[in-house]
């Protein structure tokens, strides 16, 4: 009997210790809401984020409530720190201590159960493969003339597609997403994704859109409570991610298999295998006798393709989509952009129908300023990260424990009332200097800073500029009668506009 009482006492003591430990706030941890036993702030966070209209808005509300640009909370068992404001946001992005990535169930699920690829890894694997991937992408034309040729080809195809609508009202986002992704796929796999009848490309993009809306940057409930996938696989998004992983894996492996076959055919003919795209480069590195690492394998290749695919499938096309929405709502801006495009494309050193090459982008001052204002005003990635503190450190005078997750509020920088004049007004002129040229601003950082800066920034900037110039040159973007797009975006991993329709009316 005494032994039973002893065991019960030990059990009660353990439960009390666990309870007290779960609500204990680390020493000098950033201010924030109190922790519930074992749950932390998970339920409160989700409830208040829904009420606020998104977690990015909630973080700003908490920053005011707790009078701190650094917020500390606990989601499940994970300590989370949110950095707001230019000074802290810049410090997090540039400090080596914050270059890590969390290792949790959701991020592993994102990469098909592994911790591979580039985006969601850190340490030696990240350094090695990020450098290799960027080197090879530049080799096959990323950021150079080959990429520009692909963009020009896709832009021309998009113009033909829009012309065939004959000014009928359409939702432009799906058309844009397919065109942007095809530019990226040509660099990865050396070919376009066919707009075939079975709708492979359309189906994959639809799954990606559903994924983006269902989850947030924290990964949703699956990050804090992975066991919920067994209880509510649909509600938590587990089945959606599994379906997306299966389809993407099959799609990628089919292309990898085709590349392997072409390499084998070259060997049989005694020819040097091609290195015309990223997949060929990875396969060559895997087969190389000179490699001193075993990290180049098929799984890592699939995950690297996945990282580029995810990065290129939504943010760029959504930025163009928002730009078109603004043009349809603001005829004055559209007319001003058309005047600039027409003046540049009819200048003495260019032909009337010439494509606006990226080398001449600096001549399009107002277009560049307009694009920057779209990115600043809508900030479709209001919260970036997540980062992981690689060791115990300090930030903003507070102690940040090792392995804490760090979230970065870009929205708080792009809408900083102390820096921007009337930040909630859409005004491209804020990026035009006294000489009438487009100017930079240190508070403008849509692609991030430092070594974790977005891998696809060159592709994104080139596609956004080239597609918009071509559209403005050839079409008037008009709202159908009764159509009123909303400036309030839908929350998720990225912010997306609510569906709307426009008409592309051919210019004479």
From TrEMBL:
Gene Ontology cellular-component annotations: endoplasmic reticulum membrane
Principal subcellular localization: endoplasmic reticulum
The keyword Membrane appears for this protein: yes
Membrane topology, as annotated: Peripheral membrane protein
Compartments, record wording: Endoplasmic reticulum membrane; Microsome membrane
Enzyme class: oxidoreductase
Cofactor requirements of the protein: heme
Positions of heme binding: 454
SUPFAM superfamilies reported in the protein's UniProt record: Cytochrome P450 (SSF48264)
Gene Ontology BP terms: organic acid metabolic process; xenobiotic metabolic process
InterPro entries reported in the protein's UniProt record: Cyt_P450, Cyt_P450_CS, Cyt_P450_E_grp-I, Cyt_P450_sf, Cytochrome_P450_fam2
Keywords: Endoplasmic reticulum, Heme, Iron, Membrane, Metal-binding, Microsome, Monooxygenase, Oxidoreductase
EC number(s) from the headed UniProt entry: 1.14.-.-
KW Signal (keyword) present: no
Single Gene Ontology MF annotation: heme binding
Pfam family, one: p450
Annotated function: May be involved in the metabolism of insect hormones and in the breakdown of synthetic insecticides.
PANTHER family: CYTOCHROME P450 15A1, CYTOCHROME P450 508A4-RELATED
Family, similarity comment: Belongs to the cytochrome P450 family.
Protein name as catalogued: Uncharacterized protein
Source species: Drosophila mojavensis
Protein encoded by which gene: Dmoj\GI13668
